[in-house]
Specification:
Strand content: under 5%
Organism: Eiseniibacteriota bacterium
Number of helices: 16
CATH class of the largest domain: Mainly Alpha
Protein name: HDOD domain-containing protein
Pfam families: HDOD
Number of strands: 0
Distance between the termini: 47 Å
Shape: globular
InterPro entries: HD/PDEase_dom, HDIG_dom, HDOD, RNase_Y/CdgJ
Number of domains: 2
Helix content: 55-70%
Length: 284
Amino acid sequence: MPTATDVRRSKILEGVDAIPPFPEVASRVLSLAQDPDSSAADLARAVSRDASLTSSVLRAANSAAMGSRDPVTGLPEAVVRLGIRSVRDLVVVDCLPASRRQAPGMVQRQLWMHSVATALCCRAIGVFLHGPDPEWDFLAGLFHDVGRMHLNDLFPQVYQKFWESELSDSGWIQAERAAFGIDHAELGGAILARWDLSKDLQQAVSQHHLSPAELSGTSLRVAAADEMTKTPLPDSAEEIQLTAPESVESACGELGLVGESFDDFAARVTPLVVREIQIFASIP
């Protein structure tokens, strides 16, 4: 006979089908960003199909973090100012089911900031270690905690208690499985499958809490970036600091990002993470 936890797990997985599909505009923007023959004008046309995204791109281009005094009023000019990669990032970040604002809830805001910081660190790890596709690493890092966002949305009071308990990584997984019959990594993989995103992305998201020794490729880089951007993060992006690995058996250790290597990486990457989050946070 199914237990109450089994029933809750089944309902959670059945509910994944009710999650809205991955936005068509975002899929189009991803495709254009990966096409070397696409232009800023192509990207502007794709973004212009969505009024909310158009507003977000214009606001980001005019944000203080961009350091420009001359206001941008046209979408093509905004795309040129930000760059194709940054526009792609803005559009995809907008797909996260969590808010960048404080009002909807501290946990969701923290999850948003952690996800964006992890994505940026994951891309930087790919570049730093000459990985095959740092932009793919960015997407994997961005979506690695989408299952946590969904569980928090479904069970905010339970998740608030988890958050206040300051659980370890293994503690989170155990607490989620005990409460819901499923953990956020498995659920995140199911959500990416619902969005029809790459199986490689699904795998990276669903596996990022396995033992680092069992991981490789994008999954390992996501796990390492996750270690560096531990929650809770500070409320202000300017105060973000990357967390050094506690042992060589960590995901960072598996990648050789320990000691002076980690310090060098953190010194280069932290200012970039802070600047990018400020740009993302400037949009409503």
